[in-house]
Amino acid sequence: MTDVIASPSTRRKALQQGVDIDARARALGRTTLGPEDLGTQPTASAPAGDTSYWDVDHAAHGPIREEPMSRFAQVAARNLGAANTLIPQVTHHDRADMTQIEALRCAWKGEAQARGVKLTALAFHVMALAQCLRDFPRFNASLSADGKTLILKDYVHIGIAVDTPHGLMVPVIRDADKKGLWALSAQIADLAARAQARKIKPDDMGGASMTISNLGGIGGTAFTPIVNPPELAILGITRTEIVTVWDGDTPRPVPMVPLDLSYDHRTLNGADAARFVANLAQRLADPGRMII
């Protein structure tokens, strides 16, 4: 391509940024370029993966202070950066009726106190997700490094993302599909406490079928969690809110929890995700059947 149409200002900008006008036009399949097209692909001065151009003197613009990132946080940052770059991710949003779960938590509050356990909504989420993973085996899988083989797992381990002062940690509940609500509640509390105290052991980490990132205690209405490879999906939960549901002409206030499922589109498609989350929402809406 030799006759690329571009204004003098666009050509001047391309020259300043080190962008080859002809090469950029070929990459975009275009014959006409504007200044906005110069940044749609990595430029010669900022190649993909190169962050050297971020290295600026921030102190030149005002007072600053520096805080070193922990080794654990650096490892997590590299993993999340790679996941977000290499995995084509999509997030499916839905919500579930929490009326019956909240009623059970209230009814069983005395028994929870007697057991010395706090029965959290998260325990119900873990149980529901574990059962869904049994019913949808392609979500309980990993893709081989070469992308040619789907590895289906005959176990269900659920990772619980825990926000700690030293970084995000994801301890894992092993065989979550074989445990009851009281056992799940106790293990969630134990793992969270040990994560906060930096007492999580290597055996407590890794090998999850899927991770839950629960922001319900903080807030929010939706978010897009990043898939934690080699898992194929991650479930995000935000704060339960009261939503008006209509029964014919009668409005009814219903506590609904937002559910955000991010998934690896190389192996899972939108219909898969919609069915998975719909099944999950049904289990949460009818916890009696789920528990039995």
Q: List segments where confidence is low: pLDDT < 50 over at least 5 consecutive residues.
A: 40-47
Main sheet?
7 strands, mixed
Named CATH topology of the largest domain: Chloramphenicol Acetyltransferase
From the alpha carbons, calculate the radius of gyration and give it in angstroms: 24 Å
Give the count of helical stretches: 9
Number of structural domains: 2
Assembly status: single chain
Give the CATH architecture of the largest domain: 2-Layer Sandwich
Q: Which CATH first-tier class of the largest domain would you pick?
A: Alpha Beta
Shape: globular
DSSP E strands, number: 11
Distance between the terminal alpha carbons, to the nearest Å?
68 Å
Report the mean per-residue pLDDT as an integer: 90
Q: How much of the sequence is in beta strands? A: 15-25%
Please give a structural write-up.
This protein is of the alpha+beta class and 292 residues long. It folds into two domains: 8-61, no CATH class; 86-291, Chloramphenicol acetyltransferase-like domain (Chloramphenicol Acetyltransferase, 2-Layer Sandwich). It has nine helices and eleven strands. The protein has helices at residues 8-17, 21-28, 71-86, 99-107, 109-115, 121-135, 181-196, 270-285, 287-291; strands at residues 89-97, 141-143, 150-152, 158-160, 162-164, 167-169, 172-173, 210-214, 233-237, 241-247, 250-264. Strands 1, 4, 7, 8, 9, 10 and 11 form a seven-stranded mixed β-sheet that branches. The chain has a two-stranded antiparallel sheet with strand order 2-3. α6 packs across α7 and α6 (121-135) crosses α8. It is globular, with a radius of gyration of 24 Å. The termini are far apart. The relative contact order is 0.15.
